[in-house]
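User: I'm preparing a small set of examples for a lab meeting where we compare how different chains pack in three dimensions. I only have the primary sequence for this one, and I'd like the structure in token form so I can line it up with the others. Please keep the answer compact; I'll paste it straight into my notes.
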Amino acid sequence: MINAQEFARRLSTLRAEAFTSDDVVDLATAADVRISSDLEIDATLAQRLLDHVSPAVPVTGAQITASEWPPPTSSRPAAPPAVFSSPGAFDSPADQPARARRSGPARGGRRPDSRRTGR
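Assistant: Understood. Below is the structure token output for the 119-residue chain.
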């Protein structure tokens, strides 16, 4: 757990502008949380406060309140956020369009090689 002043200091390292204890109190007010300068901030409370920071910061409440600060960085680049959508979703199998089916033998994955004619 950390206090409001340490929370503001850590938040300042993630942002271009500096945060003060007053800014932390403003975040708490927005999150409908009563806070004072001597109140210890745990991971849950920190996450509630971080949810009101705009634009969002790249850490979680647990990371910002962890004893190790700044959080360790991965040598791998961050993956872009995944977006799941199904624009062609169907409600039931009866709604699906019929697909043309091929008859005959299944095709293999290789093309015949015209250069190899040695029999």
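A couple of notes for your slides: The CA atoms of residues 113 and 119 lie 13 Å apart. The chain has four helices and no strands.

User: Perfect, thanks.
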